[in-house]
Amino acid sequence: MRRWQRRPCPHFLKSCGRCPCPHFLKSCGRCPCPHFLKSCGRCPCPHFLKSCGRYPCPHFLKSCGAVVTIFLAAGLTIGASIGAAGGVQAHWLTKLLTEAGEAGGDAAKLGSRIAVGSLEEAAGLVKRLPKHADGHLPLAAHVTPEGHWTFSNREGAAFTAATPDEMGRVAKALAPDAPDGVGLSLYLSEDSVFLRQSAIDDLPAGARLNMVVGKASYPIVRRAGAGEASPKLFAKVRDNVLVAIGKRADFREAMWQLRRSLSRADIRVLSLKPGSKQGLSPSAKFDAARKVPLADEIDPSRLANELFNIRGQTAVVTGRIDGDILYVLPSSGSEQALSLSAIRAAAADADVNLVVLHAAKPLQPGGQNWLWQTVEVGGLGKALEKTSFGDFLDALAGKRGDLVVKASDQGGARVLVEALPDAASRDVVDSVGTWVGDAVSDVTGHVVTEGVQAFMTSQERQKELDERIVPGIPSDWQFYYIGAMVMGVIGLDIARHWFDAIWPPEQRAEYRGGFGYHAARLIRWFVFVVIFLPLVGPFALIGHLSVIVFGWLMMPVRAVKRLLGYRSA
User: In 235-339, where does DSSP find H-type helix?
Assistant: First the structure.
């Protein structure tokens, strides 16, 4: 027999008349309330809010007002969604803290770590190269903050040169067994190229220069312009495509745009013909015989409005660019002028990549998709599905000169990529028109292209679009929805208790037939899983963890109570 059954609490009538007093243990610590087991088998008093407002019930989150909690959850959810809708501005606090951390500390030590890391990146690429594969000695090179050059061979040995005499001894110092007069293939770190371009002039004359970008390298081409003190640098990323080395951010954006894959189904070649009644369908039309996409005819005045129908695809337009005006020449009639800024704005709203082929005589393609015929020049037809934008430009240039690619930020997560003929290639051909005109005329007999302007989605924006599971909804919102639903599943008991307080379960007696009863249950279940559970998921998880933590904290109290008040007689 337990002690409370032998000796009732003398304060019982004072402390509790109809239900256990929440201060019972304070009024009588030697014996439990006789009504304890009847009123609550676990611990919360059913009249807790009436009997005690000072001490929280261990299951308070189950018995508190659910409506107030739900309003709080909705407010925080909407605030988080608005913050996530910024897209490009998302995670600004993380970026700020990262930049502050990088700026802090000893500048000299930080610069030393960057120098070592850059040299190791270039040296790692050199180790993967065959020794004397092209008759030249491959060496990694990095310029130090003091302006000296540090070289490293395949074995990891390093040599620092600060004077012209030391530069002449680089080959013998790192490759004693190399023959006299062996040429050098220098693989420069990315930091050396962007931060200290002037120091490149101190490198040994006649050395082949390459730029290391990640795990790849590209030959460096130097072009001296008229009136320029030092030559400009370009990275040769394709046989006929050069990328200007200027700002690091613009260079990386240009490199990413050139690696962008072109899917045959996503390329829409537009033929601007006045009076055309056709609109742009969401998917391209293909020639049944040749399996190539056909050109889409559309009235020039409807171009901006129709771009929304090909959201996320690439539109190719032929015209003559004159400032903000795009001139097009139909097969019959005179030239028509279009606002290029209005077309770009519509393309940005629809996330469409707009590629404009600049031509002195802007005839419009018709019938067969002549663009894909051009892309197939140079043996790209077999790998059409894997073709990148850089491959397209390389095939367009052919053997008639190089294209110089530049990228510039246009704001609003858009980038302008310009591909123009290299000035040094003009001595090979008679004029800019014949530079690439022959390449296209061999296929179409009409269009003479003089350059390319591509108004593309930026790398950051395109990655966000690719991460979307459901098109049209920002990826941040989708990831939050999935995460909140997982949290709600963890705290399912609490979330279900809240939902029952708002929408009580259906009773079979309230419905005449089984169909209405089960339909109401299905609707209630759908609202709970799809809407309510993600909405309160984070707070249900907090409540679930709070109950667990409270249980852990109360373990000593329960142990003491068992020793003092619940021992058997």
Answer: 248-259, 303-306
